[in-house]
Design goal:
about 220 residues, cytoplasm, tRNA-binding, mainly beta, NA-bd_OB-fold, globular, five-stranded antiparallel β-sheet, disordered N terminus
Length: about 220
């Protein structure tokens, strides 16, 4: 049954990272350099369309994630993202979300939060073009998931702040922006993802994890 969720209208499996991605997201004209560091992150809603084990690293997954982007030729494109969470969840848990809709349970491709402006980096020969955000506490790890009805590609906002400023095109690793922002990313008692106690949100509602309370997010 789940093989259906691994079929996508994407470019070939080994998408060339040099292809220019064109996002449909419109950003505010505010200058992120004058705002708190979280403004510099481009956290977007992605949809996982395929997951495989890394051929050369047992602890890594290789995901294809739809961020609503197209190539310069207007061809649908996905991002390749490498994640070290094999020991925490199975492939089906990565791919599929179960939701109650129209008086019945339905299976859909899982939506996740992706830091889309990380500098691309190789993991055992495969280039990763982003990072999935997950909550963790002890030996437990769960992917963050947006509210049902969130739009693929939309930028995650902070409930309590004005619209986030235009993010960095690519985060510079030496500046450790993600690491500094992550110090204030936590889940609440209600498993809601927060930054400095303010919920992360999309156009459809708050971002959550399944069950981790007062956990770290990275």
């Amino acid at each position: 049954m789940l093989t259906t969720y691994r079929v996508s209208r994407t470019l070939p499996q080994r998408l060339n990272w040099k292809i220019a991605f064109v996002s449909k997201v419109k950003y505010t004209t505010q200058d992120a350099s004058e705002q708190p560091l979280i403004h510099r992150l481009n956290v977007q809603i992605g949809k996982i369309v395929q997951v495989e084990r890394h051929p050369e690293a047992e602890h890594l997954y290789v995901e294809k994630v739809d961020l609503g982007e197209v190539t310069e030729e207007n061809t649908p494109a996905t991002r390749t993202i490498v994640s070290g969470i094999v020991k925490y969840m199975g492939i089906d848990d990565m791919l599929v979300s179960v939701q109650w809709l129209c008086s019945r349970w339905i299976y859909i491709n899982k939506q996740v939060l992706v830091v889309g402006n990380m500098k691309p980096s190789k993991f055992r020969g495969i280039l990763s073009q982003g990072m999935l955000l997950a909550a963790s506490k002890g030996d437990q790890v769960e992917l963050l998931e947006p509210a049902s009805g969130s739009v693929v590609g939309e930028r995650v906002q902070v409930d309590g702040l004005d619209e986030l400023a235009t993010p960095d095109t690519v985060l510079k690793p030496k500046q450790k922006v993600m690491e500094q922002v992550a110090e204030d990313l936590l889940t609440s008692d209600q498993c809601v993802a927060t930054w400095k106690d303010m919920p992360l949100k999309t156009s459809a509602g708050w971002v959550r994890c399944k069950s981790i309370q007062n956990g770290n997010i990275s």
